Fold this protein.
Amino acid sequence: MSAPISTVRPDPDTVLANIVDYVREYHVDSTLALETARNCLIDTLGCGLEALSYPACTKLLGPIVLGTIVPNGAKVPGTQFQLDPVQAAFNIGAMIRWLDFNDTWLAAEWGHPSDNLGGILATADWLSRNGKPLSMKDVLIAMIKAHEIQGCIALENSFNKVGLDHVLLVKLASTAVVGEMIGLSRDELINAVSLAMVDGHALRTYRHAPNTGSRKSWAAGDATSRAVRLALIAKTGEMGYPSVLTAKTWGFYDVLFKGKPFEFQRPYGSYVMENVLFKISFPAEFHAQTAAEAAMILHAQLQQSGKRIEDIGRITVRTHEAAIRIIDKSGPLSNPADRDHCIQYMIAVPLIFGRLTAADYEDAIAQDPRIDALRAKMTCVEDPQFTKDYHDPDKRSIANALTIEFTDGTQLDEVAVEYPIGHKRRRADGIPLLVEKFRINLARRFPQKQQQAILTVSLDQAKLEAMPVNEYVDLYVI
């Protein structure tokens, strides 16, 4: 006979309890965090609107079963879809991540905390249409807390080194804030986050050769929608697994994290939102943002020098360890998902064309033989100081430096860019460009009058915070 199942429940793991208590009890009073969250909101939604121009994205959107109608369901911005909150979260999450253009957090683990907006906005909109009105300030606060959970765990804990994808943290953070939003008790919320951790977790296979593919563009949508589902399951009273992390043999640490417990650099607050990185100029994997910026500078210098791309004999890329590990690629690149994670490609295109847009990852541009010829002339070299500054919590730089040598033996001076335009240290320069990016993305989808209605609210902190969620989302309906 098998041994009876114990009915004694262990105390919840401290990591789970700390997440739940932070979500339930922490009061956000940082003006900087709320302002940054508003900018994050509009930038993230704008990224989703741009993605709607790509059939590879839109083919995944809509209800699971064609023709399903959900009265009072959550609406998907930029579309005519009104869906249950789980599927709406997938739709919104897939849109905003599709072009790799939303915000970024870089640490021991990297990721995109605004991925959580899929679950947050879908749930808040659904609740607001069904007797529990929420304001957009509630959305901003949920964003700040989701950013904080994902980002603080990422500071000291590398999931990629054990082969797990960072969307694990999207699932965890979204479950916590969505669970609080739908009114879970403390015990129910602990159950919910434990369910998120006991889940099967995505492998990074789809981000690396030879399997790089488009799942990386909808994986976060999958994670944030799964979070909504798990929170709703917990609301039924379904049991949780309080020692999911620490249980011997069968817990997360022993099974998936080489027996190591999570480490923490700082308590939860509003640090991550205040310091988040925006992708403003280039839809490119963030470790290459400064490389692309340097390449744009060198493109102008090439034009002035009278040299041709064909005259380049060698390009040295001085970079940090994370960039070498993730995006240093040689050989064929099979699709756009492969190309936007190749630092050599993201340098070659701006050097040749003086731009780097989402369309530049498509086959029409990638087939230009000059791109691969230039990629073959690049060598990435780690600069230990760049790596150190990348991990320094007071700097959090993402530096790249490019040196071009010509076949005649001459060279251009090295161009180094330490902080990308979306870094906190460049906010004064970056935010006007972020707003312009939002205006451009609105114009892709809406007539002028609708664009202006969205801008009037979105650029006014007080108006946005006070607006009911469903009324704000309605502004984006086609």
